[in-house]
Recover the amino acids of this structure.
């Protein structure tokens, strides 16, 4: 369980990135923070592994204040997929994945063996193990980033727009695989994105943020769609847009779902 | 080349002596330049003064330096130690700026990544910053290596033996073959050490090795069970 207790962050230049943010991420759930660029998502995420220290308020992991945990130890115990992948360019794929276990004192041979298993887990060919990051496609690099975050078998996974830099097809593929991984592993996950569709695909719970890390609505995706809390949320999720205003049309005796423009989306399951 | 065939032992000994005088200052200046360069890189306010001052060391003329070193370090004037200290000072002067630039060439985002996954500052220096600074450091080190090999010969003027002894002796006795031998061998030793730097670099920095251009975008391998679940 991760608890944000009334946290604020003012950067030295005076920017208030987050103001009085409180939220609890329950264990084994995936919570998505979604908001436009600059709404404070990255800042919030980084408070969890102390890449950013709040100016006021506390972040607790399983009721322990993270300020009381050694930064380096804390970071080794939390899986973090960075915005922009962030693989180490001078290490092979295998060694990138094995990085954290090795920092934690696992032997190289053992860490590499586990890393090979993780490549399978995230759907990467073992033949890529000896390559360097620059020799991989964007989508492959993202998978390596996820494998690295999972390598130390952390209880907590932080993901900062992990699929931001890949094309829509690969992105959709990665989203599906992340869901699968989540159902297998059940990590407590905070996922950050500016894409509301991604948030709805991935989150058990979605937190919609406006500037300054203000919570506009926090709920399950279906309840957010059913009851947008205010105009901001309605606009943000495009509640009135054609793709969210679906209806059923009878086509030769079959029930076809069409969007607001009358374009077919699918069929009603029977 | 009659001269050479009669003096192979001497030439061989002097070549070894030359190597013995060249290698320690090259390694010492690398270590010192990494330390000073990293400091200059990390402490913004120190960068300018440190780089300028160390760079100016190169402007100190060698003969006064040879006289100063025994006074400061207590080494005998005509000794290898004096020579090694002098050449280390020149090496540091040449290499500190490269070293600071080398650390500066490491992407900020890599630094951040290293912190985020839990490298301690110490581990980050040794396992991330230093290796990634390697290529730029190596380029600087190659200059220091050949420059040091050449500067060793200057010692012959004050009586420190090296391949330079072949020029001074050759001039005095008017033996052209001896002078030539000295010059050619000095260049060869420089070439040898330069090549050694390059190969050591390839060995220690495998990610910089030129690679055969295979298709870097090999198709994603999706295991059958995943593909089944995914579609
Ligand atoms: N290191 C920093 N120094 C000053 N301002 C920052 C810093 N990091 C982020 N900010 C500012 O804080 C706000 C929130 O940033 P961020 O948390 O990165 O938002 P998001 O991830 O939602 O795009 C932005 O206005 C950004 O410009
Ligand atoms: Mg961000």
């Amino acid at each position: 369980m991760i608890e944000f207790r009334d946290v604020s962050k003012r950067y030295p230049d005076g920017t208030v990135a987050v103001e009085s943010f409180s939220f609890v991420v329950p264990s084994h759930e995936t919570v998505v923070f979604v908001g436009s660029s600059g709404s404070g998502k990255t800042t919030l995420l980084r408070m969890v592994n102390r890449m950013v220290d709040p100016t006021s308020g506390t972040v607790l992991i399983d009721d322990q204040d993270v300020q009381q945990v050694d930064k380096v130890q804390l970071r080794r115990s939390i899986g973090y997929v960075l915005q922009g992948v962030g693989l180490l360019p001078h290490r092979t794929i295998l060694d990138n994945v094995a990085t954290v276990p090795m920092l934690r004192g696992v032997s190289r041979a053992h860490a590499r063996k586990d890393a090979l298993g993780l490549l399978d887990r995230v759907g990467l060919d073992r033949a890529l193990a000896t390559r360097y990051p620059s020799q991989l496609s964007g989508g492959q690099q993202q998978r390596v980033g996820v494998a690295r975050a999972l390598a130390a078998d952390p209880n907590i996974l932080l993901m900062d727009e992990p699929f931001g830099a890949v094309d829509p097809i690969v992105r959709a593929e990665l989203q599906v695989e992340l869901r699968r991984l989540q159902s297998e592993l059940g990590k407590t996950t905070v996922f950050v994105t500016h894409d509301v569709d991604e948030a709805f695909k991935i989150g058990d719970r979605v937190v919609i943020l406006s500037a300054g890390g203000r919570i506009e609505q926090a709920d399950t995706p279906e309840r957010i769609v059913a009851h947008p809390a205010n105009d901001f949320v309605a606009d943000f999720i495009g509640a009135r847009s054609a793709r969210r205003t679906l209806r059923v049309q009878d086509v030769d005796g079959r029930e076809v779902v069409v969007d607001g423009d009358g374009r077919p989306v699918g069929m009603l399951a029977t | 080349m009659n001269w050479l065939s009669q003096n192979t032992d001497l030439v061989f000994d002097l070549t070894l002596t030359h190597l013995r005088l060249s290698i320690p200052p090259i390694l010492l200046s690398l270590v010192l330049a990494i330390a000073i360069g990293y400091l200059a890189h990390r402490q913004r306010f120190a960068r300018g003064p440190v780089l300028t001052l160390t760079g100016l060391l190169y402007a100190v003329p060698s003969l006064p330096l040879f006289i100063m070193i025994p006074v400061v370090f207590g080494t005998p004037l005509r000794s290898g130690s004096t020579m090694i200290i002098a050449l280390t000072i020149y090496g540091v002067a040449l290499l500190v700026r490269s070293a600071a630039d080398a650390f500066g060439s490491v992407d900020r985002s890599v630094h951040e990544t290293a912190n985020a996954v839990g490298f301690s500052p110490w581990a980050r220096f040794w396992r991330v910053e230093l290796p990634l600074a390697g290529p730029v450091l190596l380029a600087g080190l190659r200059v220091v290596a050949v420059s040091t090999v050449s500067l060793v010969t200057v010692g012959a003027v004050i009586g420190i033996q090296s391949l330079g002894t072949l020029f001074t002796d050759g001039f005095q006795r008017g033996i052209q073959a001896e002078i030539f031998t000295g010059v050619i061998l000095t260049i060869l030793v420089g070439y040898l050490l330069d090549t050694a730097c390059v190969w050591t670099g390839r060995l220690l920095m495998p990610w910089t090795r030129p690679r055969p251009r295979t298709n870097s975008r090999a198709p994603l391998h999706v295991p059958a069970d995943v593909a089944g679940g995914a579609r």
Observations:
- Residues A 41-42, 83, 160 surround magnesium ion (ligand 2) (CB under 6 Å).
- DSSP finds ten helices and no strands in chain B.
- The CA atoms of residues 102 and 134 of chain B lie 7 Å apart.
- Chain B touches chain A through 29 residues (CB under 8 Å).
